[in-house]
Amino acid sequence: MTPKNDSTAQQNQGSLVKRMLVGAVIGLLLISLFLITAGEPNPEWPKLWRIKPLIIVPLAGAMGGLCNYFLVQFNSQLGLHKAVAVIVSVIIFIIGLWLGTVLGLDGTYWN
Are the beta carbons of 60 and 96 closer than 8 angstroms? Predict the structure, then answer.
């Protein structure tokens, strides 16, 4: 029996967390920029309407980072070239971020 190398598993986990954090920060920055430049809210909207998009959009960005990690790490097992895996993961990230934005702003701007 050969001993397991835990340092490789920790590096992969660190890479996963880093990609998810980068995706969440991108989502948070984009939705914050949108909300700051949005102007005065409609008085019919709930008082704390900004909390929903500030939670949902970074979560969508983190899931995009998770998708990026899996596609790039396991591209050879999926039968993809690395460049194709990166392009597909970026497209999936953008679509997921857009869907998260729509879901986060549902009931206010997307009504």
Answer: yes
Query: Is residue 70 included in any domain, yes or no?
Result: yes
92: in domain: yes
Asked, for residue 104, whether it belongs to a domain, the answer is yes
Structural domain boundaries enclosing 110 = 50-111
pTM reported for the whole predicted model: 0.82
**Residue 41, φ and ψ in degrees, nearest 5:** -80, 160
Q: How many domains does the chain have?
A: 1
- Alpha-carbon torsion angle 49, 52, 57, 60, nearest 10: -160
- Which two tokens mark 1? 């029996």
Tens of pLDDT along the chain (111 residues)?
555 555 555 566 678 999 999 999 999 999 999 999 988 888 888 888 899 999 999 999 999 999 999 988 888 787 878 888 889 999 999 999 999 999 999 888 776
